[in-house]
Design brief:
By secondary structure, the protein is mainly alpha-helical. The protein has four helices and three strands, in the order αβααββα. The protein has helices at residues 3-38, 43-50, 54-61, 83-104; strands at residues 40-41, 73-75, 78-82. A hairpin with a 2-residue loop joins β2 and β3 (78-82). The mean pLDDT is 89.
């Protein structure tokens, strides 16, 4: 390969890397968001995330199926909670409480 060809390859490689940099940054940010949503939390972390007590988490987790129980998993006997499931639960819970208030009126 001649020196000219080598220089042209290096220039093209640099241009491609420069053009792809914003896309690679966006992909990296999305990967971090996905990891965050799928990360498991302890009961303490879940309580802190929702700004409630650990006892509230325990109480919600023990609800019957028709009462929108808090999503819980177990890892080696310890309860674990997934942020994306907590976010979804919160939306359903807000709607459930609103409907309950409407029914009481």
């Amino acid at each position: 390969m001649s020196a000219l060809e080598q220089s042209m390859r290096e220039i093209m490689k640099s241009a491609v890397e420069e053009a792809n940099a914003p896309l690679l940054q966006k992909i990296d940010g999305l990967e971090r968001q996905i990891k965050s949503l799928l990360s498991q939390m302890t009961i303490k972390q879940a309580a802190e995330y929702l700004k409630v007590t650990e006892q509230s988490i325990r109480n919600w987790s023990e609800r019957n199926e028709d009462e929108n129980p808090f999503p819980i998993h177990h890892a080696g006997g310890d309860p674990r909670f997934i942020r994306a499931e907590i976010d979804q639960w919160s939306k359903v819970e807000a709607e459930r409480r609103l409907n309950k208030r409407r029914e009481q009126k």
